[in-house]
């Protein structure tokens, strides 16, 4: 989808369709599309 190497993704809601916030843009994904996304948890950064 072209988000690059880093994107902030927050799951807002969803069961069969996932509603996510990706870098400030809401994105709805069906279950099959959402399963294809690789998510890596990053350590927290101290400010």
Low-confidence stretches: none
- Which sheet architecture does the biggest sheet show? 3 strands, antiparallel
Q: How large, in whole angstroms, is the Cα Rg? A: 12 Å
Report strand order across the widest sheet.
1-2-3
Structural class: mainly beta
Strand content: 35-45%
Number of helices: 1
- Proportion in helices: 10-25%
| Gross geometry | globular
Mean pLDDT: 76
Please indicate the count of domains.
1
Structure in words:
It is a single chain. This protein is mainly β. It has one domain (1-40). It has one helix and three strands. The protein has one helix at residues 31-35; strands spanning 9-14, 17-22, 25-30. Strands 1-2-3 form a three-stranded antiparallel beta sheet. A hairpin with a 2-residue loop joins strand 1 (9-14) and strand 2 (17-22). It is globular. The mean pLDDT is 76.
């Amino acid at each position: 989808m072209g988000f690059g190497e880093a994107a902030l993704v927050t799951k807002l809601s969803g069961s069969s369709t996932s509603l996510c916030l990706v870098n400030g843009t809401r994105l709805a994904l069906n279950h099959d599309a959402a399963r294809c996304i690789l998510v890596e948890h990053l350590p927290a950064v101290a400010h």
